[in-house]
Write a structure and sequence with these properties.
Elements lengths: L2 H24 L6 E7 L2 E8 L2 E5 L2 H6 L5 E7 L7 E8 L3 E6 L10 E5 H19 L13 H15 L18 E2 L1 E6 L5 E7 L2 E7 L6 H9 L7 E7 L2 E9 L2 E8 L2 E7 L2 E6 L9 E5 L1 H17 L15 H8 L2 H7 L18 E5 L7 E3 L4 E6 L4 E4 L2 E4 L3 H13 L3 H7 L2 H18 L4 E6 L10 E4 L1
Parallel strand pairs: 8-17, 18-23
Antiparallel strand pairs: 1-2, 2-3, 3-4, 4-5, 5-6, 6-7, 9-10, 10-11, 12-13, 13-16, 14-15, 16-17, 18-19, 19-20, 20-21, 21-22, 23-24
Length: 469
């Protein structure tokens, strides 16, 4: 028998043995019957298991149970309002399991198993059906009409997430061909009270916030730094004692198998698995996806720094224990993360520089009068268009080519038809030159000054706002 035949025979046999194991477990499973119907004049979601019918209090938990361990609260029909059954839901690698921990209702089942495909398909079909009911004017169980639009958005998110097949539980190893690499979104939204932000993966995102009074900004930075050491990073973004939890984990996913003389050769991809668990205020479904590792860390890190840039500059303008801008910025600032973003190879078994205190943040975003602004002091950045000299913190730096670059932009300002000139302007080339100049400027400035490049207001189609590392 040839070596090649022996290898193939071993794989086939292992696969057949695993299929028999799955079939043995599935024989013990029961059907899961999910439905939408009226209860006391309001529409709700029900689950029927054998002869027992329960009302699912929070349908979002049902969606989440497809991806992670979850507890679901079931209302017992024909019992007083306060009587519930609590079940723990998990996937054990072969089947989904519901286990009741409530021993006060011994007349009900304690354990049930559901086939993987039955469970996932039933949940998706049920959520789709429930969403259509939400879009009507039918009254919903424990839901005010004032929040109907929010309710609809949450279930739309849930359906979008259930359509990402690579994130669903499976009996078999995930392959690279099944994985879609998506963008991770973490973008601050300006607000006067809290640090509001947009968070999500791909086309699935929602807004929520964190509060400076019950977060330790440096702790958030340290949590994110764990990913540098190939550890799973769990980042807690707290709002009023309830956490949005972002979990980042480097995954090893098989791309291909090649036959070699000594056995098999394996090729892999290494994306970041991102899981976003909502706080109790947003009440969004858990979002899961695969993203580019460097881009995830950059988006998260820049988003945190942007949150800091929204803080008041002066101590007299802050409320309670809110940190001023420069303090909040330095709490998030991390040389370790920046080295990871630019893929700088370091020996992390040896001591590394872990903190750089920043005294000023330069924002390069030209307008008709300046190159940008010194964010912490509020001073505009002047450019001598005859000498290429830039003044920052009362010091002059010569940046060759900056005058020509900004003069090209200022032709928009002096144009008789500004709107037409703006729409025909080559913004792509402008930003390419601007980023290159910002990189050169970075080399001239001392390490305690950070540089950001931001597209000017006239460029309506660009959202460039990035840290220059």
């Amino acid at each position: 028998m040839s070596i090649e035949y022996e290898k193939q025979d071993y794989v086939v046999k292992a696969h057949e043995d695993y299929k028999k194991q799955i079939e043995a477990f599935e024989k013990k499973c029961v059907p899961i019957d999910l439905s939408c119907s009226e209860f006391n004049g309001r529409w709700a979601i029900f689950v029927k298991i054998e002869d027992d019918v329960f009302l699912i209090e929070d349908p979002i938990c049902l969606i989440n149970s497809v991806y992670k361990d979850e507890q679901i609260r079931l209302k017992i029909i024909d019992e007083p309002e306060y009587v519930y059954l609590y079940v723990d839901c998990k996937f054990d690698g072969i089947i989904y399991q519901w286990t009741s921990k409530d021993l006060t209702h011994s007349q009900f089942w304690e354990y049930k198993g559901f086939k993987l495909s039955d469970y996932q398909n039933s949940v998706k079909n049920l959520v789709t059906q429930y969403l259509e009911i939400c879009k009507t004017d039918k009254p919903l169980y424990k839901m005010s009409d004032n929040y109907r639009e929010d309710h609809i958005r949450k279930f739309q998110l849930g359906i979008q997430q259930l359509e990402v097949k690579a994130t669903l539980q499976s009996h078999y190893e995930l392959m690279a061909k099944d994985v879609q690499i998506e963008d991770f979104i973490f973008e601050p939204l300006e607000d006067e009270y809290c640090e509001d932000y947009l968070i999500g993966i791909g086309n699935r995102c929602y807004d929520t916030c964190l509060s400076h009074w019950d977060n330790y900004f440096e702790a958030i930075r340290h949590q994110l730094e764990a990913i540098i050491y190939n550890k799973k990073a769990k980042i807690d973004l707290t709002y009023d004692m309830s956490d949005t939890i972002v979990t980042l984990k480097k995954e090893t996913i098989l791309k291909s198998i090649k036959s070699v003389e000594t056995g098999y050769g394996f090729d892999y991809i290494y994306p970041m698995r991102v899981e976003i668990e909502s706080n109790e205020f947003a009440e969004a479904p858990t979002l899961v996806g695969f993203c580019d590792r460097i881009k995830v860390v950059r988006s998260f890190y820049e988003g945190l720094l942007k949150l800091a840039l929204i803080h008041p500059i002066n101590i007299k303008d802050v409320e309670d224990d809110e940190p001023i801008l420069i303090d909040a910025y330095n709490m998030f600032k991390s040389p370790l993360i920046e080295n990871y973003i630019i893929d700088k190879k370091l020996d992390y078994e040896k001591p590394q520089k872990r903190q750089q205190i920043i005294s000023e943040i330069v924002i390069i975003s030209p307008d008709k009068d300046s190159l940008g602004i010194e964010k912490n002091s509020g001073v505009p950045i002047s450019v001598d268009t005859t000498t290429d000299e830039i003044t920052v913190e009362n010091k002059k730096y010569t940046l060759k080519g900056v005058a020509e670059w900004i003069n090209e932009y200022r032709k928009i300002q002096t144009s008789k038809d500004k709107r037409k000139r703006t729409s025909s302007f080559d913004w792509q080339s402008f930003h390419s030159q601007g980023m290159a100049l910002a990189q050169e400027f970075r080399k001239l400035l001392p390490p305690d000054i950070d540089i950001w490049y931001k597209s000017p207001a006239e460029d309506k189609n660009s959202k460039l706002n990035t840290l220059i590392i």
